[in-house]
Design a protein that fits this description.
Blueprint: E1 2-8, E2 19-21, E3 24-30, E4 44-49, H1 57-66, E5 74-79, H2 84-92, E6 97-100, H3 105-122, E7 127-130, E8 133-136, E9 141-144, E10 147-149, H4 153-164, H5 172-178, H6 188-204, E11 211-214, E12 218-221
Parallel strand pairs: 1-3, 1-4, 4-5, 5-6
Antiparallel strand pairs: 2-3, 7-8, 8-9, 9-10, 11-12
Helix pairs in contact: 2-6, 4-6, 5-6
Length: 224
C-alpha cells in the first residue's frame, strides 16, 4: 500500500490517526523546526502555520526547501487571514500554495485528495520533446539539452503546460486553469512567482530564457 506523509506544524497532528483511501495510507505527524523526526518514504505534504511557537512560518518554509529530505514536499502555508501580501510572501519563501486556517482533519484531507486527483488526471507516462526540452512524466524529470532542470512540483506542472502549448500567448488565467488551480482561488500574481522560479531553473540548466513576457497579456514559451 502506498503511503502519503502529511506533516503539520500545529497541535492537530497529535490527534489524527491514519486514514486509508484508494489503496493509499495517509499518515499524520508533527513537524518541528528540525524537520521530520522519522524516515519519510513516499509523497510528503507539509502544512505550515503562518505563526509558530518556535519560529516564523516563513522561516519554516525556507528550511523545508533547504533540507534535502523535504525539498520536494508539497508545502501549504496556513494563513491567519486571506491577505494578499502574506500570500505573496509565502510563495516567495517556497510554499506551493496556501489556505486560511484554522485547520481540521477534513480540510487537510480535502486539500491533499483534491490536488492528488488533479495531478493524477494530468499525469501520464508520456514523454514530451519540444526542441531542446524533454519531459519524462514517468520519472517526473525535465531536461534541457540533456541537462536536468531542477523543479518543484508546481513549476514542473507549469513547464509541462507550457510544453503542451509552445509559441502561444498564455494569460495568467490560462495558466491557473491549466494547472487546475481554480479552487481555492489563486491570485494572478502567484503566476508571476511560478514563472520566475521556472525561468531561474531553466537558466540554471543552460536553457537561457525561453519564457517571454507579453505586456498586459501573459507569457509565451518560445520553442522552435
Amino acid at each position: 500500500m502506498d503511503v502519503v506523509n502529511i506533516f503539520l506544524t500545529c497541535d492537530l497532528a497529535d490527534s489524527l490517526e491514519d486514514f486509508v483511501h484508494d489503496q493509499r495510507r495517509f499518515t499524520f505527524d508533527r513537524l518541528g523546526p528540525a524537520g521530520p523526526e522519522r524516515l519519510v518514504e513516499g509523497p510528503m505534504w507539509a502544512f505550515v502555520d503562518w505563526v509558530m511557537d518556535d519560529l516564523a512560518g516563513l522561516e519554516m518554509c525556507r528550511r523545508l526547501r533547504a533540507d534535502p529530505r523535504t525539498a520536494e514536499a508539497h508545502v501549504t502555508m496556513v494563513l491567519e487571514e486571506d491577505d494578499a501580501e502574506d500570500r505573496r510572501r509565502a510563495l516567495k519563501a517556497g510554499a506551493d500554495d496556501y489556505m486560511v486556517g484554522p485547520l481540521d482533519r477534513t480540510a487537510v484531507l480535502d486539500r491533499v485528495l483534491a490536488l492528488q486527483t488533479r495531478n493524477a488526471e494530468r499525469h501520464s507516462a508520456r514523454r514530451y520533446e519540444v526542441g531542446p526540452l524533454a519531459i519524462d512524466m514517468a520519472a517526473l524529470q525535465a531536461r534541457w539539452d540533456g541537462e536536468p532542470i531542477v523543479l518543484r512540483p508546481n513549476e514542473f506542472r507549469l513547464l509541462r503546460f507550457f510544453a503542451e502549448n509552445p509559441n502561444r500567448v498564455l494569460s495568467r488565467e490560462d495558466l491557473i486553469n491549466g494547472l487546475g488551480k481554480r479552487e481555492p482561488p489563486i491570485d494572478e500574481r502567484t503566476v508571476d512567482v511560478w514563472v520566475g522560479r521556472l525561468r531561474r531553473a531553466i537558466k540554471a540548466a543552460g536553457g537561457g530564457n525561453p519564457l517571454r513576457t507579453v505586456r498586459s497579456m501573459g507569457y509565451v514559451f518560445d520553442l522552435a
